[in-house]
Amino acid sequence: MNNKTLVSATLLMASQAVSQNVSAELSAILEHELALDNNGHGQKFETLFEPEWNYSASDNIDMTLIGRVRLDGLDKLGPSEQRPDNYGHINGPLVSGTHGEISIREWYFDSEFGGAYGRLGKQQVVWGQADGLKILDVVNPQSFREFILDDFDDSRIPLWMANVEVPIGDDNSLQVLWIPDLTYHEFAEEGTVYEATSPLLVPQLPSNTPLIQFDKEKPSSAISDSNAGLRYSMFYDGWDLTFNYLYHYHDMPVLYQSIDASGVSINSVYERNNLLGATASNVFGDFTLRTEVGYSSDTYHLSTNLNQQGVHQSADFSSVVGLDWQGLEDTLLSVQWFQSHLFEYDDTVIRPQNNHIASLLYKRTFQNETWTLDILTLHGFDQDDGSVQAQLSYMLESNIKIWVGSDIFYGGEAGLFGQFKHEDRVTMGFEWGF
Predict the structure, then answer these.
(1) Spatial CA neighbour of 147 closest among 230, 77, 252
(2) What are 13's strand-pairing partners?
(3) What integer pLDDT is reported at residue 21 of this predicted model?
(4) Distance of CA 409 to the CA centre of its chain
(5) What residues form DSSP beta bridges with 161?
(6) Is the pLDDT confidence value at 15 over 70?
(7) How many CB atoms lie within 10 A of CB 316?
């Protein structure tokens, strides 16, 4: 499951600079993981090194710089390109290839001005409260090199942006985002383990009809094509509430198709959307109730109707209701129900009009949190498929964790999860913070 516990011992370096307020902290995480497929063959042999430098220039200016060096002894997950084309001009790895990458993971400056708090630079912004799947947590795109098996913190792609939060009263705040970074989802490459094959995601070409052309149109102006978002957070009568708005391009391109006597042409285009959403959570004894809703003005889904270029457009309403129970000592049990409804629909659309997915998370710690067992199950009712991710971890020292785990898929190959039914794997690894 790769739920990363960031436990690190920091090295404090006293600065001899102009002000006594100037200080720096240097820390790092070294992680290694081996994954074996269901035939016992290696899927990945990956080492991840992430150094972090926190620098305080004054009482009002702090800087955080996080690097990433990823090395994989195998070459089954990609990407193979030096610069994958999902990245905008101001983003992307410094060095990339099938055996790893070197990149600036995050680099931002924090400051306070006029009672507001600002963060400027390359960063992650997390909206929403759902586990396993996303409704509002779409500010940052995601890498799908390992489908959804990687931890969200690792698979999110940080973006260059301006992030300002303005306190309003004692318990309320307004967050404003401006994102000129034209970077989108990174998908598993053709021929790699988690290449998408489901008709929910990939056009299915007519029999004996070749693909003769594949064009890509991508937004190009950092100003007119930028994304922007607002989030109002408040606390009312025991409820934590947020109200969200994001004006953005979908991170997944729309695959418009056309056919003639010579074959099929596909044009990959990123389309705009207005996302309105809200979250609410409250604690009732041993239970925590979480809800999240989102309305998208424009979503795009694959269709068998080539007279409409094989794409169906519709507004969408998505929601999740989650209930967490901690009635047993050292145990968390969490149940979630996801649903998505298309307002406009016809029988040519590949996905159903109403899509339902449930999740069950079981987490138990043993021996004063030395051992931790995590099991997350996702089940799609419409395709009757799903996944089971399990991990047993042990804290060898306060800053050293080792683990073993497994990732299992089931269901028909046309399903979102079932497309990877032959890609089950076991994992083992360690993480060292220093």
Answers:
(1) 77
(2) 24
(3) 64
(4) 19
(5) 121
(6) no
(7) 20
Sign (positive or negative) of CA dihedral 114, 115, 121, 126? negative
Q: Residue holding tokens 């404090």?
A: 12
CA 302 to chain centroid: 22
Domains of the chain, each with CATH number or no CATH: 11-433 (2.40.160.10)
Instruction: Please tell me what DSSP assigns to residue 205.
Output: P
Q: Answer for the pair 201, 144: CB distance below 8 angstroms, yes or no.
A: no
Least confident of 126-135, 229-238, 370-379, 390-399: 126-135
Residue 363's nearest CA partner among 351, 372, 353 is 372
What does DSSP assign to residue 397? E
pLDDT at 10: 33
DSSP string, 292-361: EEEEEEEEEEEBS-GGGTTEEEEEEEEEEEEEEE--STTEEEEEEEEEEEESS--TTBSS-SEEEEEEEE
3-state secondary structure of 175: strand
Beta bridge partners of 245: 230, 276
Query: Which 8-state DSSP code applies to residue 77?
Result: S
- Arithmetic mean of pLDDT over the chain: 93
Q: How far is Cα 271 from Cα 251, in angstroms, rounded to an integer?
A: 9
Q: How far apart are CA 245 and CA 162, in angstroms?
A: 16
Cis peptide before 253 (omega within 30 of 0): no
pTM: 0.91
Kindly list the distances between the CA atom of residue 90 and the CA atoms of 120, 142, 159, 217, 422, in Å, as whole numbers in the listed order. 14, 17, 9, 18, 37
- Report yes or no: 8 and 434 within 8 Å, Cβ to Cβ: yes
Instruction: Convert the pLDDT of each residue in 217-262 to its tens digit.
Output: 999 999 999 999 999 999 999 999 999 999 999 999 999 999 998 9
User: Residue 101: which of 127, 116, 85, 80 has the closest Cα?
Assistant: 80
Strands 263-269 and 211-217: parallel
Question: What count of other Cβ atoms lies within 10 Å of the Cβ of residue 398?
Answer: 10
Residue linked to tokens 């300002």: 164
Token pair belonging to 423: 């890609």
